[in-house]
Amino acid sequence: MTELYVPEPAGRRGFCDRGGVISELVDDPVTDPAAAARGARELGVLDERIARCTACPRLVEWREQVAREKRAAFRDQTYWGRPVPGFGPPDAAIAVVGLAPAAHGANRTGRMFTGDRSGDVLYRAMHDVGLASQPHAHGLGDGLVLHRTRITSPVRCAPPANKPTPAERDTCRPWLARELVLLRDTVRVVLVLGGFGWQAVLPVLHDAAWAVPSPRPKFGHGAEAVLPARDGGADLNLLGCYHVSQQNTFTGTLTPEMLRDVLRRARELAGI
Question: What confidence score (pLDDT) does residue 27 get?
Answer without folding.
Answer: 62
